[in-house]
Amino acid sequence: MEPVIIAVGSNIGDRLSYIQMAGKFLEELSEGDIKKSSIWESEPVGDAKYDFLNCAARIETSLAPEQLLVRLKEFERSSGREANPVRWGPRVIDLDLIGFGDLVIQQERLIIPHPEYAKRLFVLLPLQEIDSKWKDPENKKNIDELTDEAPRMDITKTGYNW
Q: How many whole angstroms separate alpha carbon 49 and alpha carbon 98?
């Protein structure tokens, strides 16, 4: 089994409910221990107009990366996410595959580590909570370095549970 980092976000509708549904889905998907971060609220990025709730989970799976991506996208669609949403636009739920063990993958539909994660405090701060020893398998930077280098944004830890 491989440890996998998945970032979760929502910025429209009942954001907390969508995050909680994603948490149950990830618990069922994980074949071993699951570790969930706090839920953070952050300002939108790009054209999104509403604040996001964000968090991250570390799961364990024996699925291949491509199989896991299909399962994540199926969950998004079944939760009401549009098939081809506007990039950085509003979304009921977003599950991003950030890291998969020590793999580095560059395919048309799958890039690991996620190509934008190092610019996103709303991914890095939750990741730092669940895996303080995490290192980017591509550039070898640890989570503390990545967090220090990321662009600043308005982000606050909430008291919500998922």
A: 24
